[in-house]
Predict the structure.
Amino acid sequence: MEIISGTALSKIVKNSLAERIAAWKAEGKRAPKLSVVLVGEDSDSMKYVKIKEKTCAEIGMIGELHLLPENISQGELLGLIDKLNRNEMVDGILIQLPLPAHIDTKTVLNHVDYRKDADGLHPMNAGLLFEGGKGVLPCTPKGIISLLKYGNIEIDGKHAVVLGRSNLVGNPVAQMLMRENATVTICHTHTQNLPNIVKQADILVLAMGTFGVVTPEMLKPDVVVVDVAMNWVNNRLAGDLYAERNLAALENIVSVITPVPGGVGPMTIVGLLENVVEMATSQPHSPK
């Protein structure tokens, strides 16, 4: 059984991005800039933002944080987004989720200029993905496809089963797998005969957020497992696959697996960085 490390691949991608940014700056152009908007001081959100800031600095990108009070009005937040949309020095905008309950998340995300939508969550980008156009790709699904290609996993013609139908992971990764000519089945909490469907998977993407929803006896021999979920179980992180915490139990069943943690997570961050670099370098000019 092969374990595909997102940590290892993320280092390769970050090095490549750093070289690309250095060459871009050597031409007299400014560094790509990501503006992160964080409302309130949620500890988990702060941790994620700090990781993004640190990673931006590592590759020569500018990471700018807008830390806003918990009680900011929705109108004031939208006003800031308007300014960032108009600012030619800002290439990518990221709204750190979750937002406070008094703010409508969909309204805020939709207010970001889709051409600066670093997370790839704007309906315009979702529509471009659906129709096969060129838009900003959502970071986690982008990281999943990168991991599969890094592991030399054949996608064309394979049956991919995706557990989870969120707009953050399940739906977009299904679209991206179909772009690679996979046949895709999406399952969710209302799916009947789940074990029978999972058993058909050549590639299994787990994104339900329910530890133990899949067990070893449900798996097809030589299946490729990409576990996106992050569940806290007895003070440890685990994915959706029950046996994942005992990889020996999968040795004669699974051909390839991504670990939790250290699998898809690191690739989500580099997917974000890739998006911002693409947005910056695709502009007709990039003034200092």
About this structure: The longest strand covers residues 33-39. The chain has a mean pLDDT of 93. The chain has two domains: 27-130, 139-266.
